[in-house]
Design goal:
201 residues, mainly alpha, Rhomboid-like fold, 8 helices
């Protein structure tokens, strides 16, 4: 099943897993250089992209790679490699910029790691192109159409971010990933006939 994934999705999963294994060999070293640090506290420009390849625990990378497996393959097959890469990178970078902005406004912050920003962008893209596709939650196993799942998930992230619940989770980065995805969808839509129409699965 993994071998049947489109090449970019498969490569992203393999790179993330490889980096995670390397993190176990040199704890803290990769995070010091490649995590997304707050502005003025170890921040470097390349971190707006590299943070998305680091993860803090097995469960962290498992759920991100599971989502990449579930939604990335379908979107890459639908868009093609070039568009998929552009969309994923835009989501990752937008998530980083959103998180940095929130940290500046709050006057505090911690380093951020994880592919969640890119994954949330993919969730939005999947819901846009396949709105009626049924998604079954892991916990609890409740089936719902993709558009409803993403809408509820986005609302939950906004609530948790505003209220400060789960302070160790970068909720605004997740929302930023969705924002980056939305910007790409609007740009493609503005290009005459270049953006595929939504499918009603």
């Amino acid at each position: 099943m993994f071998a049947s994934l489109p090449p970019v999705t498969r490569a992203l999963i393999l790179i993330n897993v490889g980096v995670f294994l390397l993190q176990q060999l040199v704890p803290g070293l990769l995070q010091a250089w490649f995590a997304l640090w707050p502005l003025g506290a170890g921040f470097e420009p390349w971190q707006v992209l590299t943070y998305a390849f680091l993860h803090g625990s097995f469960m962290h990378i498992f759920f991100n790679m599971f989502a990449l497996f579930m939604f990335g393959g379908a979107l890459e097959s639908y868009w093609g490699r070039q568009r998929f890469v552009a969309f994923y990178v835009a989501s990752v970078v937008a998530a980083a910029l959103t998180q940095l902005t929130v940290q500046v406004m709050a006057g505090a912050g911690e380093p951020v790691i994880g592919a969640s920003g890119g994954v949330f962008g993919l969730l939005l893209g999947f819901a846009w192109y396949f709105p009626r596709q049924r998604i079954v939650l892991l916990f609890p196993p409740i089936p719902m159409p993709a558009w409803l799942f993403v809408t509820l998930y986005g609302a939950l992230e906004l609530f948790l971010g505003v209220t400060g619940a789960q302070a160790s989770v970068a909720h605004f980065a997740h929302l930023g990933g969705m924002l980056g995805g939305a910007i790409m969808l609007l740009l493609w839509r503005a290009q005459d006939g270049s953006a595929p129409r939504r499918r009603g699965w």
